[in-house]
Every structure is written in C-alpha cells, then in structure tokens.
Amino acid sequence: MTTLAVLGAGAKAVAVAAKASVVREMGINPPDVIAVERTGVAANWYAIGGWTDGAHRLGTGPEKDVGFPYRSALVPRRNAELDERMTCYSWQAYLIATGQFADWIDRGRPAPTHRQWGQYLCWVAERIDMEVAHGEVDRIAVDGRRWALHTRDNTIHADALMVTGPGQAERTLLPGNPRVLSIAQFWHRAAQHDRINAERVAMIGGGETAAAMLNELRGHPVSTITVISPQVTLFTRGESYFENSLFSDPTHWTALTLQERRDAIARTDRGVFSSSVQDVLMADDRIRHLRGRVAHAVGRDGQIRLTLSTNRGSEDFETVHGFDLVIDGSGLDALWFTSLFSQDALDLLELGLGGPLGSDRLQEAIGYDLAVEGVAPKLFLPNLAGLNQGPGFPNLSCLGLLSDRVLGAELSPTDTAGGDPARPALRRDDEHQSIR
C-alpha cells in the first residue's frame, strides 16, 4: 500500500481520511492516510490551537462538511454509492448521533461555534479510526523516493505528503514586546476572559483572521481601533449564489484567465470581511481604517510606533503612527512549512518549479490533483491551490471534492526505467479521477 502523510489533523486531513475509509469499505484499496499532529484532531478550532477562542461562529455553513459537495468522480459507476456512504459522516449525521438535530433545526440552523465544529471533526475522526501520529514535525526531508517527517521521537515515512493548516499563530512584528500581541496571544487572553484595556489599538490585517479578532475586540474597553491593511477600504466578501458557486464547483475555473482568477479571489476571499461581521462593525464608531503596509515597528515612550508605506501613483509614501497596543492579525504565511524542509527537500522543490521558491511561482505550479507539478514524491498543497484550481480548496468550501482530487492522484513516484508507476493505485482520466 502507498502511504499519504498529512501535516496537521484538521478538516482537510479528516475529509481525506474519511473518504479513504469509505473507499476501503467499498472493496477498493486507497492509500493509507496518517496525520501527523502536534496537539490533537481539529486543534485549530479550539483555544489551544491559537487561532480562536472556540466561542466564535463558523463563517462557512456547516452543511459544507467533510463530504460536500457530494458529487464524487472517484469510483466509476459507483460514485452515487460513495456519496451515499459519505453522508454517514455529514454534519446532520453528527447532530442526529449526538441528539442535537431537532434542537438545531428548531433554532433556525445556526452556525456552530468553532468549538462545536471541532467536536464534529473529532467525531468523524473517531468513527473512522483515523490514524494520528502525535508529535511536532521539526524537519521534513526526502529519503530516497519517499518523504520523511521527523519529530523528536519518531520518523514517519510516506509516499506522498499533504500540508494543511495556516502554520503557527505565535509570530508578531516585535517578539517579546508586551504591547504587540500575536494571534495566539490575543485569543489566549480572550479565552481567559482577560479584557484588553487600552486607548489606541491597531489591528494589522484586512482578512477574516483580523475580522474575527475585531468582532471579539468590540466587547473590550478600548477607545479607538484602527484597522491597518493595504486595501483602499475594508471590503465585504461577496456571498451571493454566484460567488458561492465558484467555491463549490470549480468546473469552469481553469477557463478563466489568470487575472480574472486573481480578481475573483480578491473580491470573494482575500483581504475581505464576511457580510455578517461587516454589519456588526459598521455600528461601532470606534473602528476606523488606515491604508498601508507596515514597513517598520519600534517600541518607544510606552508606545508602538508603526511606519506605514502607502503607494500613491508611482511613489511610495511613509507615515508614522503611534498606538498603545498592536495586534498582529496579518494572518498566515503561505510558505510557513518550507522552514521545516531540509536542504534536499528545498532543492527538490526548486528543481520541480524550475526556479527559486516563491509564493506566486508555487501557486501557479499546483496541478489538478492539488500537488506541485514536476515534484516527486508528491507534495499536495491545497492551501495554495486556489489560484490554479479553484478558491474553495484552501478553505472548507469543497472538502469532498478536495479528497477526490488527492485520493485520485498517482501517489507513487514514476519508475524512470520503465516509465510506469511503481504503485499504480490511482490514475487520472480525461475529466475526472478514477481508482484502479
């Protein structure tokens, strides 16, 4: 059997493991899926993960669960059966199994809290007996034709690797300065009901990470909250049927030009607030927006002074602003995982990319199966697949389709002598993936 290692035991790992479990029940051999996780299943949906206090509401509808959109193209002539079997792990199935379904319906199908969503993912993982190797990965190397994930106590070898999650939430502009909070520090205080009391607060970031923290910060005794982002204003995410369908069904996504795709992502996903959060923020006159990118930060005279760079036409202007407290909500680093790569793994990646490693170059190299083209053993990067394959893959919008793409890939490296896969478990057909 081939083995797929997943870095992180979040929603994407659970979705792929659940689909593999169902396919195995149908008498077909999928790859073994093993998640390598430092904390626990769905940790980032709890306060312990550093990205939330667990009490805020899920922005995506919970019906977009591990099987959504239930339109599999993985097992020829048996895809309807596959989808039906996957409904056993749906959000509704979880509510029924835990005696919560009628209450959820009677309350108008409210969005679950992050903690409740994490409980759902843990329920799925437990039902499928998901394999989790506990430990923090400190190095990822290439061992012959396989990946080697090294933790302090163990080494996990795999024929393919999928990287998930936003990385760590502890980074800040000024590490160690008590007047600059990381995302993790902010949510830790929120979870402990430690109120932030300050006159002038700056929130760096214009995306959903910053929006969730702003929503929490509204209930704290602060005088002014300045949101700093490079956009000209705080945009609202498009949430009509037409925008949402781009996330659920990327069939025509690749027919768009690269610029059209970038425009669509900018309008619906990157650096935008959900309409529900915007409605709440509009009513709070303490919140204002300041355009610019943080070029420099320094602690001085009991303040944090931020130097902002703003492009105006053909020139960049710099201005300095002082704050009593700064919250660094700029969000994830798209290439956070590369710091774990050994030099041979970095060389392999750059060789496959045909040039130096960079976010744009990497995004444009993501293929149909959500893996980096030209790299063997396979490296799946769904969080970077939005530009090339569809905006739903980096988030929760099409987990069932994501698992199809990954499990439908040819995981084993190609035998260069014979030209045939060393383990031809999965093969790409013309318009969809099929398991052999």
Automatic annotation (TrEMBL):
Chain spans, region Disordered: 412-436
InterPro entries: FAD/NAD-bd_sf, Lys/Orn_oxygenase
GO molecular function: L-lysine 6-monooxygenase (NADPH) activity
Signal peptide: none
Pathway annotation from the record: Siderophore biosynthesis; mycobactin biosynthesis
Segments of skewed composition (Basic and acidic residues): 426-436
Cofactor: FAD
SUPFAM superfamilies in the cross-refs: FAD/NAD(P)-binding domain (SSF51905)
Catalytic activity of the protein: L-lysine + NADPH + O2 = N(6)-hydroxy-L-lysine + NADP(+) + H2O
UniProt keywords, alphabetically: FAD, Flavoprotein, Monooxygenase, NADP, Oxidoreductase
Record-listed E.C. numbers: 1.14.13.59
UniProt similarity note: Belongs to the lysine N(6)-hydroxylase/L-ornithine N(5)-oxygenase family.
Name the UniProt record assigns to this protein: L-lysine N6-monooxygenase MbtG
Organism for this UniProt entry: [Mycobacterium] nativiensis
Gene for this chain: mbtG
